[in-house]
Amino acid sequence: MRLRRRPKGAPEGETRRVGKLRAQIAEATRLRGLVRNPDLTAVEIERHRRRTLIGLWFFLALGLVFTTAGVQRFLAGNATPADPIWWAAWTVEPMFAGLLIVLLNFEALILSHGIDLEHAWWTRLKQVLLAATLFMNVIPQLVPLVTNWTEFNPGSALVHAIIPVIVYGLAEVIPVIQARARQAILNGYAEADRHQPDPEPAPPATPEATPKPDSEPTPAPKPEPLATAEQPVAPEPPAVVKTVQRGPKLPPQMIQAIDNARTQALREGREFTAADVQAVVRLPDDIAAQVAGSTTNGHAVT
User: Fold this and answer.
1) How much is the pTM?
2) Could you tell me if 76 and 106 are in contact, meaning their C-beta atoms sit under 8 angstroms apart?
3) Helical H runs in 77-119?
4) Domain residue limits at 168
5) Within 13 A of 109's CA, how many CA atoms are on the CB side?
6) pLDDT tier at 245 (50, 70, 90 boundaries)?
7) Is residue 266 exposed (0-12), middle (13-18) or buried (19+ Cβ within 10 Å)?
8) CB 170, CB 208: distance < 8 Å
9) Tens digits of per-residue pLDDT, 107-145?
10) Do residues 296 and 218 lie in contact, with contact meaning Cβ atoms separated by under 8 Å?
11) Residue 56 and residue 177: Cα distance in Å, rounded?
12) Which keywords describe this protein according to UniProt (predicted)?
């Protein structure tokens, strides 16, 4: 047996063929997980459903064009294009086809959501449309049997009888395809959810000890004298933010808002409370009290 060369620096037996096979195995392993993905299944089903419906609607339209010519011949009779009835006869079959298409669209939408159209006239209306189209297509082909049987064409009569039936069959199949495609997608998602492991319950949270606020209230700052024209106003020293040793951790925006509220409360000569905290930041009562207690110690919240 001929041995293949191994690349430089590769271990013993690690030839190029072995490396190629390893890459193919790794690719197959990744593809196995993707093939079982319900999202990929839904995309493939939707793509094939769209292609199938496009083909069915195309051939349904061709069949309706054929039946339109037969109906026009039946209604127009011996009329010529100079007679208005000759032109009006072309609109009868498109009207029947339009009604049928509207019913199909609504039926496909309802069936795709798992709802059956349980009404007798729903099926009767489609049957009436089929029977009218079938009758008006077949009768002109059977007239030569009575008038002059030598002009009778059995092939033409058969085609004029089969095509309306095929059109009706397509009208019944299109909504079923819509409903079955949706059901297949839902079944794939349900199967994936069934094999998904249940999430582990979260451990119970241990309650944190709420720090007690200091019993001594913070002394109110002395009111500053009003500035006059002769006495310039001294600039206010920047607030020194110290690191807190206890209390919840909050974002910098909330810390700045709480510091501003605390400064305002001190200027007004009152104690900084949990209500002042909740006035600027949305926090629960217990956390707001904890924040107010942390700030009354002369520290900033971190």
Assistant:
1) 0.48
2) no
3) 84-88, 92-112
4) 38-194
5) 6
6) very low
7) middle
8) no
9) 877 877 777 777 888 888 888 888 888 888 888 888 877
10) yes
11) 10
12) Membrane, Transmembrane, Transmembrane helix
